[in-house]
Structure formats: structure tokens, C-alpha cells
Amino acid sequence: MNPPESSEAGTNGDAKGTSVIVNAIAVLRTFTADEPLLGVTEIASRVGLHKSTVSRILSTFEQEHLVERDPETRRFRLGLGLIAVAGPLLAELEERRVAYPVLRELAERTGETSALMVWNGTESMCVEQIASHHQIKHTTPLGARYKDAMSASVQVFLAAEPPERVRALLRSGAITYPGLDEIGLEAYMARLQEVAARGWAINYGESSIDEVGVASPAYDHRGDIVAAVLIPAPRFRVSPETLQGLGESCKAAARKVTARLGGTVPVTS
Fold it and tell me: Which one, out of 12, 34, 146, 239, has a CA that is 20 to 30 A from the CA of 28?
């Protein structure tokens, strides 16, 4: 009669399975809008895995069309199979559905790209966008993630977080702010208070010298921020006077999204 498997063996098996999943997710997360093409060696160095392990993960992903090879460089990019995975989520994301007509109206009125961003706790992510009709424009690819402290949408979301959590995110580097010291930290905290009071955030070439961004929060029925409306635009097209108009238009659009969600804007904002 065979002895029963020990609970320790089962635990080890579960841990190993979890580790494989975590590694696979880490590989997918290395691809970004700025670096859509990556080789096995590059990915391995970033996730801290052996090249053979990364190669096996990518091979499985390729079979499932989650990644694909560039025919010229033989490097990898994300594949169309991910759309099939993410599609049901995007279709059911209420904020995205109700915001779409508002974003279209905003893009038509301002002539600039409009986007909807959501917060995962440490990053602002794009879930919808309407591109500007201008030949020169700034766009925010679907799925793009931002954690730069000066990003307009990141400011919006951080302005709603408890101050101690914001400080912890900045000090740990989870939210990037190069050269941050205690004086700069307190100045940034004061900036977030201004964002909350004004109702929209500004990034006037502070993350990228060529780009301007304004963002404003959308709220649910509890008065919690569930999304941010973002307008990214080329800096040469936005004067300080134009910036004010974009900010007010963005705030008005965010309030429309809030109303369509059945939400309420806190009195303090």
C-alpha cells in the first residue's frame, strides 16, 4: 500500500507552479510601448532568469500567439493573442464604455488626443484613447503603463492617495522621481494638494520635453476616483493660455464621465 503524499510535497508543487506563473507574467511585463521589441538575453537580464528559462516561456507564448517574432531581427514582440485575452475585460470595463463618447467629443473640441487612464495601485494605465486629427500628435497606446511622478494622470491618482502611501511609493522608487530629496518630496506633496483643489493636473514638458499633458479625475457613486481623463499634446502647440483651456476642457469631460457613471465629485475638488 503506497503511503499518502505528504502535505509538504503538495505545498512544494503549488509553490513551483506559482513560481512558473509569476515568471511568465514577468516576461510579458518587460514589453512596453517604448521598447516593443526585445531579445531573449535582454528579457532574461531584466527578469533575473536564465536565458533557457526565458526561451521556454517565449516558445510557449509563441505557440499561443501571445508573442511573435520580428521576421528581420528575430526579436520578440507582444502578439495578437493577447487581444483575445484582454478583450472581454475591456468590453466589460464600465469606465471605458461610458467614457468613449465623451472622449470623442473632447478630441473633436480640442483637436488633441484624449485618453482614459485607470490606476492599479502603482501605475496609471491607458484603457481607451481617441487620436488627434493632427499629423503631429501624441498618443497613448492601449495598455501603456506610467509611473513617472510628473505624469499628469499619475498626479491625479496620487492626489487621492493617503499622504503616507504617496511618500512610501516615492521613497521606494515604485513611483519614479529622479533625484528626490525630502525638500523635493514635500514640494511634490504640496503640488498634489493643488491638483486636488484645482481638479486637474499639469505636466508641462516635465516628463518629456516635447509633450504636455493635462488630466482630471472621474469618480464613482462613492466619490472615489475610478479613472482619469487625459489630454496629451505636443508642447509646441500648447501655450500657457492654451494650457488653461485644455485643463478646463479636460475637467469638464471628466465630470461628464463621472455623471455617466452615476458618480459624485467631492466638494473639496
Answer: 12
Record the cell numbers describing residue 104, joined without a space: 470623442
Take residue 152 and report the three cell numbers written for it.
499628469
Q: Which residues contact 263 (CB under 8 A, 6 or more apart)?
A: 218, 219, 220, 221, 222, 223, 226
pLDDT in tens, 171-219: 999 999 988 888 899 999 999 999 999 999 999 999 889 999 999 999 9
Check whether domain 7-83 has CATH 1.10.10.10, yes or no: yes
To which residue does cell 492601449 refer?
A: 142
184-193 — which CB contacts under 8 Å span 24+ positions?
188/149, 189/163, 191/155, 192/155, 192/158, 192/159, 192/166, 193/159
Quote the cell numbers at residue 36.
516593443
Complete DSSP assignment for 179-193:
T--HHHHHHHHHHHH
Residues in the chain: 269
Tell which residue, 171, 169, 263, has the closest CA to residue 224: 263
Confidence of residue 90 (pLDDT cuts 50, 70, 90): low
Cα–Cα nearest to 90, from 33, 45, 128, 123:
128
Stretch(es) of the chain classified as CATH 3.30.450.40: 93-260
Give domain 93-260's CATH number out of 3.40.50.150, 3.30.450.40, 3.40.190.150, 3.60.70.12.
3.30.450.40
The three grid cell numbers given for residue 187, joined into one nine-digit string: 514640494
pLDDT in tens, 198-207: 999 999 999 8
In contact, 92 and 119? CB cutoff 8 Å: no
> Alpha-carbon distance 127 to 230, whole Å?
11
pTM, two decimals, is 0.70
